[in-house]
Amino acid sequence: MTYLLLFFEFFKMGALTFGGGYAMIPFIEETVIRNGWMTMEELVDFIAVSESTPGAFAVNMSTYVGSEVGGLFGSFCATLGLVLPPFIVILIIAKCYEKFKKSFIVKGVMLGLKSTVVGLIAATVISVGASVLIPQGLDFSMIVSSALTTANFWFSLGVFAVMLFLLLYKKLNPILIIGISAALGIVAGYTGLITV
What are the φ/ψ torsions at residue 163 (nearest 5 degrees)? Predict the structure, then answer.
């Protein structure tokens, strides 16, 4: 039953999510929390791992969630569920797209989908960012007192700001950014600057 549930949940995500892996994060978050497969903190940790490892982000996430829930066969079921719908859809689209690509309906659909994807990615940034920077929720007094006394908050905020600057203005390779971030986290944890 668990394997069928993994396949079905990830099949729904693969069939109904437009915009790639980042747009899929809100659906993955809702699914894993609703089913009790992992906590938000565990999910955020593996979002970082999935982004830092080779391969498609959403496939990495589905494989990991499946493995956590149902072992090796669970990872197979979740991954197959995720990739099967886009595989079928892209085969159909590839056959039909040339014929209809000049259609105003198709152009309108593509414009609408692109706008939605930007919104989904923005929601993901806010959701994941809040769970990293404000893990205790949105109680303002708690946020202020925690932020003023928690080195983890300031460390996370500082690394975020520096890496954003390096990505946007210095155009550093994302692999280098990931390596620098990981090294900073190791040093900060080893020296006791942050608690991990």
Answer: -65, -35
